[in-house]
Amino acid sequence: MRLTRRGIALPTAMLTRAVLLVMLPEVTSTRFIVGSNMGWTSNVNYTVWARDKHFYVGDLLDLVHDRNQMNVLEVNKTDYEACNSDHPVHDWSTRTGRDVVPLNSDHPILGVVPS
Ligand SMILES: *[C@@H]1O[C@H](CO)[C@@H](O)[C@H](O)[C@H]1NC(C)=O
Ligand SMILES: *[C@@H]1O[C@H](CO)[C@@H](O)[C@H](O)[C@H]1NC(C)=O
Predict the structure, then answer these.
(1) Whose Cα sits closest to atom 9 in ligand 2?
(2) Which residues belong to any copy of the Phytocyanin domain (predicted)?
(3) Which of 69, 103, 104, 110 is such that its CA lies 20 to 30 A from the CA of 24?
(4) For residue range 3-12, what is the model confidence (pLDDT) as tens digits?
């Protein structure tokens, strides 16, 4: 699998950073549709999207995207920075165009164009 849309990785790292700032215990979980009605795509500024939201461990990120254009992979920091999708920590893709990722780790998420 090769990443051909480099730009997608960056906004999510920012989102992950925003998530880390507010990791407090919470009993109820919230489900966020990432990017709201724009979904998970290459031209949304997710820093802006995440700005007024509070994320907690156990919340769910709902990634709505074009299933023919993207897979959703969780990678470690090295691979994220190298934009390398060859060794994902977790492949969240269901190939349905709607993948749900629980917020229970601090790994960045890459949107990857399937080869
Ligand atoms: C997204 O918006 C933030 C805050 O306005 C800005 O600092 C950042 O540069 C923007 N990122 C991109 C990729 O445009
Ligand atoms: C990430 O995974 C790659 C490939 O398995 C490995 O070489 C690298 O050391 C890992 N980095 C971290 C921070 O765990």
Answers:
(1) 78
(2) 30-115
(3) 110
(4) 443 334 444 5
> Domain range holding 48?
6-109
Q: What is the pTM of this model?
A: 0.69
| Digit-coded pLDDT (tens) for 19-32 | 444 444 546 788 99
Mind giving me the DSSP string for 56-86?
Answer: -TT-EEEEE--TTT-EEEE--HHHHHHT--S
Q: Which atom of ligand 1 is nearest to the CA of 45?
A: 1
Q: Is residue 1 part of a domain?
A: no
Whose atoms come closest to the Cα of 85: which ligand?
2
Report how far residue 69's alpha carbon sits from residue 63's, in angstroms, rounded to the nearest whole number: 13
| 6's tokens | 């480099």
Q: Which of the listed residues 75, 77, 78 should we mutate to test ligand 2's pocket, taking the one with most ligand atoms within 8 A of CB?
A: 78
- Give pLDDT tens digits for 42-86: 788 888 888 888 888 888 989 998 888 778 888 888 888 888 888
